[in-house]
Write a structure and sequence with these properties.
Blueprint lengths: L2 H18 L7 E7 L18 H9 L1 E3 L2 E2 L5 H10 L3 H4 L15 E2 L14 H7 L3 E6 L9 H4 L11 E3 L30 H15 L5 E6 L11 H12 L8 H23 L6 E7 L21 H4 L3 E4 L6 E3 L3 E2 L3 H8 L16 H5 L9 E5 L8 E6 L2 E6 L5 E5 L15 H18 L5 E2 L13
Parallel strand pairs: 1-7, 1-8, 2-10, 3-11, 5-6, 5-7
Antiparallel strand pairs: 2-9, 4-16, 8-9, 12-13, 13-14, 14-15
Helix pairs in contact: 7-9, 8-9
Length: 465
């Protein structure tokens, strides 16, 4: 008998039991989703200017995935993928809402979906079925802004959340004070001098206080660090002074101040869990919706938000909780995986007809096994800083296909994480293999493609309206 293997299986069973506990001790779930957060914005991931002790501690106390991805290079599709467990291409919500208009571009953007259909059972709805109280705090940006008559039906409360603090159609703060009072957001009160990240954290702590005996799902979806870049004055002054003391790989005091406020927010929530005796009964997830605005925050990766390369989609991806041993994993994972993973960790039935493009990461988290090797896909049939493209990562290789002219870029991410050496011409068979797999995937999920634009004007193609 292989005692090492048998012992490992027994340990895995015991750990699994510890995750779900008794029926009346379901683990809580706290999900931190950060806006426009680059792979290199944390001090534990390469920044020598930012100070993020609380998030760094969180990363070290759970499983950190070094190949963690957002499902899109911009926000609304990535957020929808987390809540649905489906690729943006499948649900046809493929751009930030309401998207750019480029009427004279070479390709015509498809008639895409600017809302999540109510027929879908979203992650918070699945958790409500399992007896969870659900709270949404922060940025929503999943409302059909060009169909005003439908907007009232697509606030967070209409998609499984018991309460909505701050969520509306905005993709960034647009209140009279922007990141400062007044915020002009649903169910958010404030006073002179209040800072948005701090005020939303107050509501998160209040929600935890109200749920001492109930399992809960806290989905804290930050507006930070989206533009406008506005930090608290005392923190900005701190980083201005720090900048004068030496040379750093990042050099924006306002941005650093926003990152510190984010870190302090995460720390306050984690401290509240500790004080309430809930820390050992809570699954905590931390990730971002897409890359940072500006490659200096993307950890040396090529590109940033709204670009087709790694800087636009590779994200911090941390999960801690009962039975999850600290460690790292290099298995490629993506935002669609959160839905089935959370259900699996709380011992709720999976919903494979809903989270069609996600897989449970529980075996990796509990170190009881592996997940089936698979390819990851991206589909962005829109114009932004990038031109319309699709992409696939399979093993160490990543292929990008640009739809305007069929140009291919092939990279070996193991050897070339910065995507500096295009191998498409040197490895045509590999490029063709991945292109075929990408095309077949688009057929399977019925992804929309852009079409030739009869109004195409080369001189005005990059102009928006």
């Amino acid at each position: 008998m292989n005692w090492r293997k048998t012992g490992g299986l027994l340990l895995g069973m015991l750990v699994g039991m510890n995750v779900v506990g008794a029926a009346n001790e379901k683990p809580n779930v706290v999900f931190f989703l950060v806006d426009d957060f680059g792979w290199g914005a944390l001090s534990s991931m390469g920044s020598d200017f930012h100070e993020t002790p609380n998030i760094d501690k969180l990363a070290k106390s759970g499983m950190a995935f070094s190949n963690g991805y957002a499902a899109c290079t911009v926000c609304s599709p990535s957020r929808a993928a987390i809540l649905t467990g489906c690729y943006p291409g499948r649900i046809r919500l493929t751009d930030w809402i309401a998207g750019h208009k480029r009427p004279y571009a070479k390709l015509k953007v498809p008639d895409w979906n600017m809302k999540i259909d109510h027929e879908r059972i979203l992650l918070p709805e699945a958790l409500k079925e399992a007896g969870y109280a659900t709270s949404f705090i922060g940025k929503w940006h999943l409302m059909p802004m060009r169909q005003k008559e439908l907007m009232k039906d697509h606030f967070p409360e209409a998609h499984g959340f018991d309460q909505n603090i701050g969520g509306r159609e905005w993709g960034q703060p647009k209140g009279r004070g922007l990141f400062f009072h007044p915020f002009d957001m649903p169910n958010v009160t404030s006073n002179e001098g209040d800072y948005l990240t701090d005020r939303l954290t107050d509501y998160a702590i209040e929600f935890i206080d109200q749920q001492q005996t109930n399992p809960f799902f806290l989905y804290f979806s930050y507006y930070t660090v989206h533009w406008p870049i506005m930090g608290k004055p005392e923190l900005v002054a701190k980083y201005e002074a720090k900048l004068k003391s030496g040379k750093y790989n990042q050099n924006n005091p306002e941005y650093a101040a926003m990152v510190q406020s984010l870190d302090e927010s995460v720390g306050r929530v984690l401290d509240k869990l500790e004080e309430s005796g809930l820390a050992d009964k809570t699954i905590v997830i931390f990730t971002g919706d897409n890359g940072a605005t500006g490659s200096k925050y993307c950890g040396g990766l090529r590109g940033s938000k709204a670009y087709s390369h790694e800087g636009g989609v590779r994200e911090p991806f941390f999960i801690k909780g009962p039975g999850i041993q600290p460690g790292t994993s290099d298995v490629p994972v993506i935002g669609t995986d959160f839905y089935p993973t959370i259900l699996d960790l709380i011992a709720a039935p999976l919903k494979p007809e809903q989270h069609k493009d996600g897989v449970s990461l529980k075996p990796l988290l509990l170190q009881t096994g592996d997940i089936e090797e698979r390819a990851l896909f991206w589909h962005y049939p829109h114009y932004h800083k990038t031109k319309p493209y699709g992409a696939i990562r399979s093993g160490d290789y990543k292929l990008i296909e640009f739809f305007e002219d069929g140009k291919l870029e092939l990279y070996n991410l193991k050897d070339d994480l910065a995507e500096e050496s295009n191998l498409a011409d040197r490895m045509p068979e590999k490029a063709a293999e991945l292109l075929k797999e990408l095309e077949q995937w688009r057929i399977r999920v019925d992804a929309q493609l852009p079409t030739p634009n009869p109004e195409y004007d080369p001189e005005r193609g990059s102009h928006g309206v």
